[in-house]
Automatic annotation (TrEMBL):
Membrane-spanning residues: 12-30, 42-63, 84-109, 294-315
PROSITE patterns registered for this protein in UniProt: HAMP, HIS_KIN
Protein name in UniProt: histidine kinase
Coiled-coil ranges from the UniProt annotation: none
Topology relative to the membrane: Multi-pass membrane protein
GO molecular function list: ATP binding; phosphorelay sensor kinase activity
Keywords: ATP-binding, Cell membrane, Kinase, Membrane, Nucleotide-binding, Phosphoprotein, Transferase, Transmembrane, Transmembrane helix, Two-component regulatory system
Native source organism of the sequence: Pacificimonas flava
Amino acid sequence: MTGSISMYPSLEIGVGVLSVIAAVLGYLSLTDQLDTGELGPVGRTALLVAILLPFMGLIIVMARRIAVVWLDRRRGLAGARLHVRLLGLFAVLAAGPTILTVVFASLLFQTGTAFWFSDNAQTVLTNAESVAQAYVEENRQRIVGDIFSMGGDLHSYALDLGTDSELFDEGVEWQLAARNLTEAIIFTPVPGGAYQVIASAETNGALGEDIVLAERLSTEAVSRAAIGETAVLTGSEDRVEAIVRLDPTSPFFLYASRTVDPKAVQAAEQAADARSEYADLLDQSRDLQWRFNAMLGGLAIMVLTVAILSALWLANRLTAPIARMASAAERVGEGDLSARVEIRYTPDELGVLARSFNRMAAQLETQTGDLVAANARAETRRRFIEAVLEGVSAGVLAIGRGGTIELASTNATDLLSAPAGRAVGQPVAAFAPEFSDLIAKARSSGFARGEVDIHRDTEVRTLLVRVDSVPGADQLVITFDDVTQQLADQRRAAWADVARRIAHEIKNPLTPIQLSAERLQRRFGRAMEAGRDADIFGELTGTIVRQVADLRRMVDEFSSFARMPKPVFRPENLQEIARQTLFLQEVGHPGIRYRLVADDDLPALICDRRQISQALTNLLKNAAEAIQSNGERPPEDAEIALFLRGDSGHVLAEICDNGPGMPVDMRERVTEPYVTTREGGTGLGLAIVKKIVEEHHGELSFRDRQGGGTCAVMSFATDVLRSRLQSDEFETEQTSEKV
């Protein structure tokens, strides 16, 4: 690309030289100074193409230059506007004088040609030609008259003296001298087309030694003279020749001539030539005017073209350093501090400015490099700290002066349910208002620690928060971790131990108590006579049996919660399990309408059938009890819907009721043991469901139902359960092989 660009100046110079040569050839062709007659049509066409091609190349070169300048201006390049202004200024300065010169020259030429080709000039030439021709014609008529008179006199001499006498010859010579003629010949035609000379006379040897009349005389002239006319010969321009017959009855003819004044003849010829040339010039005047105007126009175009090219060259020379400096300044402004201005014109002010700019850019580059290096070291240190913080499960916040967050780990934003990347720059009081008390305590004592409950999107979390003050700086470091699940697990483990102990201590005496009450009823109930005592005895023993059954059911729940059997995973039809469970609930709660909605392509669920059935039963039972709160009859629109869906590697079982709903603050604690919102509940049903779901690698969550009520959602990861099934089958095969 650089080679092609550097080629353009040489190409432009070459095109300019060729254009000058073509202009010279065109001028020579227009003025007929170049002989093109021998070239032929093909050669003339080739010459025309050779003349036009350089001009076309010159137009293309100039158009390219102008297009480059215009495109640079459209792109907003540095120096482009100045380039255009300089080009316009030079073009106007060159065009004005050139156009005035062309107009003035054209008017001057038109005025001069109008004078030279006026009617007066044409009249002068015509009159001069007429005068010269009249003078020559008058001499001719006078000479013809003299020859005619001389013929009459010679006829008399012939009759009186005879043609053979010397006196006749002397008479001819005397007539010749008297009439100032040049030569005279008396002849008579003879058979064979020849002429016989009878007598002759001359002055200054005009006839010469040999006289051949047949070469001078024409048959037509002799014939005209024979009938009595004076035949004037036209063969000679410098003399007048005529033939006359001496007498109509005479056989003799006179040929005589007189030399005309050469100056008069030359003047007449010059007048005729001048008149002819003037007529030709008059006919060619329009063509001359067109040629002159065309040459002036071509010259003007050439001058304008050279002026524009020179303006382009000069403008480029002036604006190129400024454009380079502006371009370098723009690059520096965009951040490229390695930009430098190429110094080509060292002596002038532009060179000084370019050197100053380069020194400034070099200093900026050095200082910026130092700053970038320092910033890179700080950034590396910061990234290292962030990487360390990202590897810590706890959330970390760095609080600067004014209580603004300067650093926040990803876990911190996740634990506080905040959008990632938006914590930095916010006040900690707005980002985590629950930490305000601990922050105030840390500012006064330098350290604070405690548990904080936060509410985010209908979810309550318990965070263990530690706030440390940075010595010597008004900064704080807050670390916190989510201990909600840990506390729940601790409570669940404690309650499991309590349930195990209670089940053990209560279950042992229950059977003897129940057997004793039944035995008393059988033995003494029959012996007692019917009456009030018998009724009271039967009621008391029945109460004991019923209460023992209730205690046994409670102990069974304790046992189920404390010692949940290990699930046995097999592919099961979840829709069939749900249908059977719903059937049992419909029988037990006929006042509630149950509805099952399942996907057609619901995949098989790898699970423990008994445990999943127990979980569905507990959830459906809780939903029914929520609708029938306080022992009231269910409303007519009471409904429980069970939705089964498969979605992105998960199977969802969702139980929705239109009961009173669940308080928001209870959703995280409702699955803990012995936590219940229902009067008389044991608080173990949802705890057992959560344990079953966790054993199946799933999640249990609650949400509000649209229109009122609660939805309990069990989500199972099918891929995890499938890998668990394969792992159990492998362990079973290994155990069988060992056995």
